[in-house]
Write a structure and sequence with these properties.
By secondary structure, the protein is α+β, with helices and mostly antiparallel strands. The chain is built from five helices and twelve strands. The protein folds into two domains: about 80 residues, Elongation Factor Tu (Ef-tu), domain 3 (Beta Barrel); about 80 residues, Elongation Factor Tu (Ef-tu), domain 3 (Beta Barrel), CATH 2.40.30. The protein has a six-stranded antiparallel beta barrel. The chain has a six-stranded antiparallel beta barrel with strand order 7-8-11-10-9-12. The chain starts with 7 loop residues before the first strand and ends with a helix.
Length: about 220
């Protein structure tokens, strides 16, 4: 579980590509003071498992599903990535609940300066937009952000100078793809509501129906 508060910007040191998978080696600094094999690290919002590490690099396997669902397949040697370790039990919850399980991707369609803030407009598909709520939370490349505006097929966020400096979002350009994770609370509420609705529907199996077919 993550919070969407990025710890540092790392760099892709190498990529070993398989037929439908890959192994990433990622270089960093801050996250290595308490890193172990098997730990979870969010890389641009995608939860990856540490398979090995050295003084300032770690390796992670990326499976076919993850490459299909996220933008990790477009990374190259030297690419900059947001890094966040899983939240510790005694840590502050500065962002929102982020699972690291990407719902899909979006594309930046507009970047606008607004005094000291920067606005980003992102277009995405309807399956993601259905959970986008104005003033609600969304994770963009693992960054916990607040939705400032939402329309039928796109939404906008406004970031402060600190977020621009501490993440890779300020290095993005119009047309770039970003990983998106919806606030999980909305998804669980919808699932629970749908299941409740189904369970309360009147059954078509009646006493008369059973008698008609010899039961």
């Amino acid at each position: 579980m993550f919070t969407g508060i990025i710890e540092e910007i790392g760099t892709i040191d190498s990529i070993k590509a398989g037929v439908k998978s890959s192994i990433l080696t990622i270089q960093g600094n801050l996250i290595f003071d308490d890193l172990h094999i098997g730990d979870s690290v969010a890389v641009n919002g995608v939860c990856l498992t540490v398979a090995g590490y050295s003084r300032n690099t770690f390796k992670a396997d990326v499976m076919h599903e993850t490459l299909n669902r996220s933008s990790l397949g477009s990374l190259r040697k030297g690419s900059r990535v947001n890094l966040e370790r899983a939240m510790s039990a005694n840590g502050r919850f500065g962002g929102h609940i982020v699972s690291g399980h990407i719902d899909g991707t979006g594309k930046i369609t507009k970047i606008e300066k607004d005094d000291n803030a920067i606005w980003y407009t992102i277009i995405t598909n309807k399956s993601i937009m259905r959970y986008i709520v104005e003033k609600g939370s969304v994770a963009i490349d693992g960054i916990s952000l607040t939705v400032a505006k939402e329309k039928d097929n796109d939404f906008s966020v406004s970031i402060i100078p600190h977020t621009a400096k501490a993440t890779i979002l300020s290095q993005k350009s119009v047309g770039d793809t970003v990983n998106l994770e919806n606030d999980m609370v909305g998804k669980y509420v919808e699932k629970l509501f749908c299941n409740t609705q189904e369970s309360t529907k009147e059954s078509k199996i009646t006493k008369e129906f059973l008698a008609k077919f010899g039961f």
